[in-house]
């Protein structure tokens, strides 16, 4: 992203100026589906370790599942998110916004199931026991503003809100008040 340049979502569903690493783990949204929900996630691989290539590797089906004991449980997983925000705030896109990324799994929001159909998923590199970085909040707020300008997004939820009991991310350290304050600014 060039400093000062205004990020926009193109007709191809890609955010301008944002590095795009295509994930094969996506498909078409159902006919007539609109993007109405933004889902905030957190992930780190190995859990609690930041900065490595393995989150992107997981989302592009290139993870060496023998490389860490935790990864055995990830074998064969086909998952993705539209965006990843690294610890330094760097943003990467993995799935075009018009496509359905596979981030939510079994999920329900306001009585509607299959949240992937009508949502955009943003992963923050993080863990349940670690505060997020200021740069991550800044990037998250900025991509949220861009997405809200482009799509009729009514709600923002955490993965734990749409899959309670099954998912805990973005976790207790995600500061919703801080995020909402940034959005209001
Ligand atoms: Zn999640």
Provide a brief overview of the structure.
The protein has 185 residues and is α/β, with parallel strands linked by helices.
Label the overall shape: globular
Beta content comes to 15-25%
Q: Helical proportion?
A: 10-25%
**Which stretches of 5+ consecutive residues score pLDDT under 50?**
none
Small molecules held by this entry: zinc ion
CA-based gyration radius? 15 Å
Write a structural description.
This protein is α/β, with parallel strands linked by helices and 185 residues long. The chain has helices at 54-59, 134-150, 159-162, 176-184, and strands at 26-28, 37-43, 83-85, 91-93, 99-101, 108-109, 112-113, 119-125, 155-158. Helix 2 crosses helix 4. Bound molecules: zinc ion. The site of zinc ion (ZN) has 4 residues, from loops.
Highlighted features:
19% helix, 5-stranded mixed β-sheet, alpha/beta, two-stranded antiparallel sheet, 185 residues, binds zinc ion, globular
Give me the secondary-structure topology.
Blueprint lengths: L25 E3 L8 E7 L10 H6 L23 E3 L5 E3 L5 E3 L6 E2 L2 E2 L5 E7 L8 H17 L4 E4 H4 L13 H9 L1
Parallel strand pairs: 2-8, 2-9, 3-8
Antiparallel strand pairs: 1-5, 3-4, 6-7
Helix pairs in contact: 2-4
């Amino acid at each position: 992203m060039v400093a000062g340049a205004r990020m926009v979502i193109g007709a191809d569903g890609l955010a301008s100026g944002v590095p795009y690493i295509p994930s094969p783990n996506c498909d078409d949204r159902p006919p007539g589906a609109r993007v109405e929900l933004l889902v905030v996630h957190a992930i780190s691989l190995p859990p609690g370790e930041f900065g490595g290539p393995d989150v992107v590797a997981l989302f592009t089906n290139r993870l060496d599942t023998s490389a860490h004991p935790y990864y055995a449980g990830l074998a064969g997983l086909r998952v993705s998110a539209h965006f990843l925000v690294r610890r330094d705030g760097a943003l990467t896109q993995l799935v075009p916004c018009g496509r359905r990324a596979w981030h939510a799994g079994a999920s329900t929001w306001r009585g509607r199931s299959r949240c992937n159909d009508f949502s955009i998923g943003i992963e923050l590199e993080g863990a349940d026991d670690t505060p997020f970085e200021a740069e991550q909040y800044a990037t998250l707020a900025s991509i949220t503003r861009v997405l809200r300008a482009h799509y009729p997004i009514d709600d923002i939820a955490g993965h734990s809100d749409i899959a309670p009991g099954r998912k805990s991310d973005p976790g207790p350290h995600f500061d919703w008040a801080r995020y909402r304050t940034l959005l209001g600014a």
